[in-house]
């Protein structure tokens, strides 16, 4: 994945570039809004990570300008502002995801990968059927089967699995699940998401020798077939 | 009044400055204004009296003259000029006599008790007021009202009356006038002075107290004399204000103390873990485990800061514009759905009951978070298995003009005395100390409720705690498109 980090705090930008490179990605950085805008326009990036407050051209204006220029590269907004409506403003300006500072790198990585994947899969986004290994989910009939055996799920469990399967092979964080399945952006204090995932896991894995939902310590969950075939 | 209040002038003040200050007081200026009005009234009243008295006396003089003239004209008619002269001569010598004068056409004195009178007066018949003399030596010493007649043969007859009495009365009235005015002015100034210095003394006392408070004596309060006057009322409301400010200050101090104290513990723990890992860890796995623990600890701290910032922002009240018409019934059910599994996992039952169509001006995210915090608390502290019933209930219903939300549990509850306190930041009751958390949950809920112009009440659920929230209800908009789940970052098509 090739990404551009537009962040005026040079130390933070350097840390991100290094961290992304260590996880096998290609990352460039720009330190003010105008440089960032020029680089982003040249294209070639799969995801842009944009700090909200930038010198010369602020983050939201930068995103708006890019969108006006028909640059559709997914944008993840980083913001030190945690106002309740900041997320809405950021998304309205054309951002695709929003992460308030301070954040864990694992969270940023998972979200960035999800955005890049969305970009790639754009044309086939309306798939009606997901398949990972022997697990199948039909979005039209709301049926889930594993190795041909039907697994009855609650609507909420269905949406949870749907999201995990859509992002199969990618790490999905707890807050991403809370956002997309329950549509809340706050931080649940207890392990609410873990409970839901472990119930789903219980239903999916019951009677099968291999687990399909895996916990990634310090980050979240990933749905994949253990043979390493998925990716 | 106490000695300190009497001696309340600000230290270092010169006498002149104090007097100047006295002149500038409202009390003194008011006194002066009243004084001017009163003096004017006195002036008008006395003037009226003086004018009337003079008119009465003048009338009296004129009628005396008329009577004299009537008498003399009778004498003249019966005995002619000679008789008139005889009568005039006699009357002139009587004690308290009027003024008489008969002259020739040339003005030569014939008979009478008037020594001198201006020639012009004698030349013009009719009534006039003039100076005259008793004899030639005191030419114009006296004043009189006189009437002059021309008699056959060119003789002139002057009959008049001295006005000395009238003038003396006028002088008396004039003196009374001046004395009274002087008294009014002097008493007025003294009165104003006294009133002003009394007010000034109290204001100075207040100033001194406020300066002491500014200098750091936050427990100082203004003296209230207890007579209920305007200064007392001012002092009372200032005292109330000071009380409120003091409360806020204490709150602030407590908050910052608590922040320092409560964050020190996890920071120390974090530091110690890193330190221990450096010293002890022998394998990469151990190091990794230690680092992960450090990160967890750091995440906890970030969470605390986020919560603190959020509370501060909500309390600043700048976020009012994010409140939109919202049906909270789906929100309540959604949060219930989120936590039901957690409750079950702990062997508890979360019972969710929400009426339909509960519309408020609200923010779904904030209401959701507040409910999540309450349920989280209930599950964490309040829930013990309750035979045959729900361990924790989440209810939402409409009651008159307000929408009510309640989260109840059957745990130990919160003693009545502690209920106000637990809404503050970082307050954790003794029982809760051993469990994870920072004591910010209820503070956040309270801030959210206040942003929604609602009220939060902690009640006894006998046994357990019942947190009840009342938020003003809104009329359902006619379009009926209340967003239950607004579009989010990554739209996930909901199963129909």
UniProtKB/TrEMBL annotation, chain B:
It is an enzyme of class 2 (transferase). It catalyses: ATP + protein L-histidine = ADP + protein N-phospho-L-histidine. Keywords: Kinase, Membrane, Phosphoprotein, Transferase, Transmembrane, Transmembrane helix, Two-component regulatory system. It holds the Pfam family HATPase_c. It is found in: Membrane. Residues 197-250 form the HAMP domain. GO terms for molecular function: kinase activity. The chain crosses the membrane at residues 32-51, 176-196. Residues 484-496 have a biased composition (Pro residues). The keyword Zinc-finger does not apply. InterPro entries: HAMP_dom, HATPase_C_sf, HATPase_dom, His_kinase_dom, HisK_dim/P_dom, HisK_dim/P_sf, Sig_transdc_His_kin-like_C, TCS_sensor_his_kinase. SMART domains: HAMP, HATPase_c, HisKA. This is histidine kinase. It comes from Methylobacterium longum.
């Amino acid at each position: 994945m090739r990404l551009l980090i537009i962040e005026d705090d040079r130390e933070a930008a350097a840390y991100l570039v290094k961290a992304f490179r260590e996880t096998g990605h290609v990352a460039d950085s720009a330190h003010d809004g105008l440089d960032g805008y020029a680089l982003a326009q040249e294209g070639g990036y799969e995801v842009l990570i944009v700090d909200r407050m930038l010198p010369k051209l602020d983050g939201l204006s930068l995103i708006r300008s890019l969108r006006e220029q028909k640059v559709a590269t997914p944008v993840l907004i980083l913001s030190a502002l945690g106002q309740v409506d900041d997320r809405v403003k950021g998304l309205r300006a054309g951002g695709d995801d929003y992460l308030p500072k301070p954040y864990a790198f694992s969270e940023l990585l998972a979200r960035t990968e999800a955005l890049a994947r969305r970009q790639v899969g754009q044309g086939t986004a309306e798939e009606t059927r997901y398949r990972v290994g022997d697990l199948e989910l039909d979005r039209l009939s709301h049926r889930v089967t594993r190795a041909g055996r039907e697994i009855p799920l609650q609507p909420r469990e269905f949406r949870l699995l749907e999201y995990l399967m859509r992002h199969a092979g990618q790490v999905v964080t707890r807050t991403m699940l809370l956002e997309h399945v329950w549509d809340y952006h706050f931080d649940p204090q207890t392990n609410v998401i873990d409970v839901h995932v472990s119930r789903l896991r219980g239903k999916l894995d019951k009677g099968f020798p291999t687990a399909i939902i895996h916990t990634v310590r310090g980050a979240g969950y990933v749905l994949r077939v253990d043979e390493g075939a998925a990716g | 009044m106490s000695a300190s209040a009497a001696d309340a002038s600000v230290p270092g003040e010169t006498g002149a400055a104090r007097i100047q200050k006295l002149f500038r007081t409202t009390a003194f200026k008011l006194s002066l204004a009243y004084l001017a009005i009163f003096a004017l009234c006195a002036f008008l009243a006395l003037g009226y009296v003086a004018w009337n008295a003079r008119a009465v006396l003048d009338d009296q003089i004129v009628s005396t003259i008329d009577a004299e003239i009537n008498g003399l004209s009778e004498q003249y008619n019966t005995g002619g000029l000679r008789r008139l002269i005889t009568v005039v001569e006699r009357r002139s010598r009587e004690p308290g006599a009027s003024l008489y004068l008969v002259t020739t056409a040339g003005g030569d004195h014939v008979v009478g008790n008037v020594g001198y009178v201006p020639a012009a007066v004698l030349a013009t018949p009719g009534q006039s007021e003039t100076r005259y003399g008793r004899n030639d030596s005191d030419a114009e010493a006296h004043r009189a009202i006189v009437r002059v007649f021309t008699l056959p043969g060119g003789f002139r007859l002057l009959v008049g009356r001295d006005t000395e009495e009238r003038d003396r009365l006028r002088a008396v009235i004039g003196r009374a006038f001046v004395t009274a005015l002087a008294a009014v002015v002097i008493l007025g100034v003294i009165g104003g002075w006294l009133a002003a210095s009394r007010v000034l003394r109290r204001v100075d006392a207040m100033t001194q107290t406020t300066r002491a408070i500014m200098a750091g004596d936050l427990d100082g309060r203004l003296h209230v004399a207890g007579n209920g006057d305007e200064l007392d009322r001012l002092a009372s409301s200032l005292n109330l204000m000071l009380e409120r400010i003091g409360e806020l200050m204490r709150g602030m101090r407590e908050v910052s103390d608590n922040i320092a104290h409560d964050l020190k513990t996890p920071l120390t723990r974090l530091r110690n873990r890193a330190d221990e890992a450096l010293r002890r860890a022998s394998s990469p796995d151990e190091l990794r485990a230690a680092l992960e623990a450090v990160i967890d600890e750091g995440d906890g701290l970030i969470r605390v800061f986020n919560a603190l910032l959020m509370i501060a922002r909500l309390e600043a009240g700048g976020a009012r514009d994010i409140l939109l018409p919202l049906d909270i019934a789906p929100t309540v059910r959604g949060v219930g759905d989120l936590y039901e599994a957690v409750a079950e996992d702990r062997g508890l039952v979360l019972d969710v009951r929400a009426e339909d169509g509960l519309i408020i001006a609200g923010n779904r995210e904030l209401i959701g978070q507040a409910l999540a915090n309450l349920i989280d608390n209930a599950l964490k502290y309040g829930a013990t298995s309750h035979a045959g019933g729900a361990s924790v209930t989440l209810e939402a219903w409409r009651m008159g003009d307000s929408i009510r939300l309640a989260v109840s549990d059957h745990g130990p509850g919160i003693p009545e005395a502690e209920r106000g306190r637990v809404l503050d930041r970082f307050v954790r009751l003794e029982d809760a100390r051993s469990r994870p958390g920072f004591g910010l949950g209820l503070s956040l809920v309270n801030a959210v409720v206040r942003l929604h112009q609602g009220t939060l009440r902690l009640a006894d659920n006998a046994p357990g705690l019942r947190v009840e929230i009342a938020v003003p209800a809104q009329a359902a908009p006619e379009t009926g498109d209340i967003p239950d789940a607004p579009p989010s970052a990554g739209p996930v098509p909901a199963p129909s």
